[in-house]
Amino acid sequence: MQVTREQYRSLVSAALRSPPRHGRSPLVLYMVDMLDLPDSVLPDLPELVSAGSNILVVGNKVDLLPGDSPDYLKRFRKLLLKSCARLGILPAAKGIGDQADRTGRHNLVDVHLISAKTGYGVEELISKLQRSWKCNGDVYLIGTTNSGKSTLFNTLLQSDYCKSKAPEVINRATISPWPGTTLNLLKFPIINPTPDRLFRRQERLKADAEKTEEQLSGDEQKYLKCLKKQGYLIGRVGRTFQQQKSKGIIHFDPDELSFNMEEEPVIPSKKPKERVEFTYNELKDARWFFDTPGIVKENCVLNLLSEKEVKIVLPTHAIVPRTFVLKPGMVLFLGALGRIDYLQGAKSSWFSVVASNLLPVHVTTLEKADGIYQKHAGDTLLKVPTGGEERMREFPPLTAQDITLEGIGIFEAVADIKLSSAGWVAITAHLEDKLQLRAYTPEGTALMIRKPPLLPHIVAIKGKRIKGSVAYRTKKPSPLVENIKSNKPMEKKVPKM
């Protein structure tokens, strides 16, 4: 089931352009998938949001990307700002908070990086949202499909941002790779950040920040260990305010528990759990947090794939970069969804693949490339698409685009060749070496050259060269747990090539 642009516009625009409640305009929490930048930035957002609305941009899935330098998160933030401003979503102004921003068509509140899955940056996001309480009304979470909106909705539902009673009342958002699972707006009531609550929350955050991993409970340590296997940046989202429950009172029916010595005791069946409801007074002045349906990206390779194939292509664990050194006349396949031919160049160049760890990479020669695609597309060697010859008969053919790049040195990639939403290949070449490349993606999908690259120093994240091979051993950087006393920021050393 898919949401058309017309359905999405009708639903979301009606909500965002409705008369302000509580005398305040809504806050738009705009989520962007950092793996798919800039394609995950909606070009029609300004048309959905009324002039003067406040927008907080959230870059999600930073936990899946390895740090290629100590300041890589600052670089992500700047690139996210530029991508939004270039498409007219944010005013091209001097900087966040400048007068030029506040007087523009839309008011930029902030740009914030998070991982909705591991919790990185979420507590800080909650604090920012709470500080905007007096300035904004309801909050609307919008973005493209697969950007992580439902995961963030579920995380905030269990946090200090939501009324403590709400998690037992509100249905959790369904997390699915498919868009349009519902056209109804999921919502929960936002807790009023009174001075007392803010003080208690800050005390809890301060106490949490003083803990080391060894001081966490066994369940917390086990959960952190699991998250470390899945992401590079880990956060801890706690809860300060809990629903009040009666203590020391046991409710039972004495007649159900009584029996004589000749009878077998009968254990009463469990009564259904009483449904928790809000009272009118609890919600009459409430502000609400709404999750909206994700809009389908146009020209996206995921639109061509089955659910099984989407699960292979979309990364769910920390991406481990795979680097290969290619000479002119060699070809790199990313599954059967992308192909890059190295046609001309003076020297060998480095091709670093950033994609799902489940999506195979195959390197061959230009002479063999067409034969390999014909024989193995739809088969286990290239893996996606799956289904053999029958599947490939209905799958669009690959179409080519010629690319010319000039190397800027062996320690820095010159550009990313982004193969729709399947991933990208960062190209690192010798200084002033002119490269002639030809890249392929399925017909009807977007292929783009991203300059500057998202991870310019990615060639440094590799192991030793595998003897007799064009590949380097993969190397996974250490994870970093946010607000854990014993952890120190990761330091990056650039090895010699």
From TrEMBL:
GO cellular component terms?
Answer: matrix side of mitochondrial inner membrane
According to its UniProt entry, the protein's GO biological process terms are:
mitochondrial ribosome assembly; mitochondrion organization
Q: Which CDD domains match?
A: YqeH
Q: Name one GO molecular function term.
A: GTP binding
Q: Which residues form the signal peptide?
A: none
Identify the residues that the record assigns to the NOA1/YqeH-like C-terminal domain, covering every copy. 351-451
Q: Which domain of life is it from?
A: Eukaryota
- Pfam families under this entry? MMR_HSR1, YqeH-like_C
Q: Note the InterPro entries from the entry.
A: GTP-bd (IPR006073), Mito_transl_resp_regulator (IPR052807), NOA1/YqeH-like_C (IPR048422), P-loop_NTPase (IPR027417)
Cite the G domain residue spans from the record: 139-189
Name the chain's protein. Nitric oxide associated 1
- Which organism's genome codes for this protein? Pelodiscus sinensis (Chinese softshell turtle)
Report the gene name. NOA1
